[in-house]
Amino acid sequence: MHMPLALCVLVTTCFSLVAGEVVANFYDITECLEFFHKYRIPDLGKDRPGVVHICHRFHNQYHFATLYDTHNRIAVYSAYIFEASNGGGREKRWFIEPQLVNSSWDGEMRDGYWLGQDNPDIYLGENQALNEDYTHSGFDRGHLNPNGHHAVPGRNSTFTLTNVVPQNPKLNQNAWRIYESKLTEKFQGPTCWQAHVLVGAIPSANNWIVKNNQKRVNIPEYIWNAYCCMNGYGRPAFSGGATALNTEQNIVVERTLDEMVDFLQQYSNTPVGDLFRGQCTV
Asked: Are 22 and 51 in contact (CB under 8 A)?
């Protein structure tokens, strides 16, 4: 399957015909498609110039999926299935996606430091954020797909820079962290057998981490979340979502899925549609 020519022009490396983990479509890898509720891939962001589909592979296993914006160098959203944490896996390394540098490279995420050491003459950050972009920026490397919502080794895999955005430290370490913990309790409750989750960012109009006089990473205006919990019979148990302005305001606003669609539609030039199959009602 060929990618649109426009995408090949917008990013340095053309990702067509890639048989690895940067794929033309999430449908290309069955294990990746399973992160979406009943295989429903959201319409959100799919027509945005420069987006690529990433099926994140770590230790030769797929752990979650990301629609990644190579222009803003932040994710549109990450999709995952909640796992109860088994401890450990708090990485000091920050990974990057090799195929966003060169489509012929291996698809398993790599420690950005050592990938740079192995390829000293190749710039790794044309299509993705690098660890040094965040250094002394005043922003946290805020996980979209939370490391606390996974068991090892899935927890380790969330430390890829394609899964983080510049997040206000007060929000990341307080209200958003508390909200993620609240979701952990809900997802481990007796009525939720499996939770499908989307977590995304809405880019700002013109607010960036700037390094060496270059706009490197867009600072999102909002962080958002949406989830669908299924019971043991595979039927919807409950659903919801939330938004948070990415400032020191430090407030998370919880919403229904329909309210989430209305909210996201304000920032989309194309119809957002259902976030989950039947909006988690079927």
From this structure: no
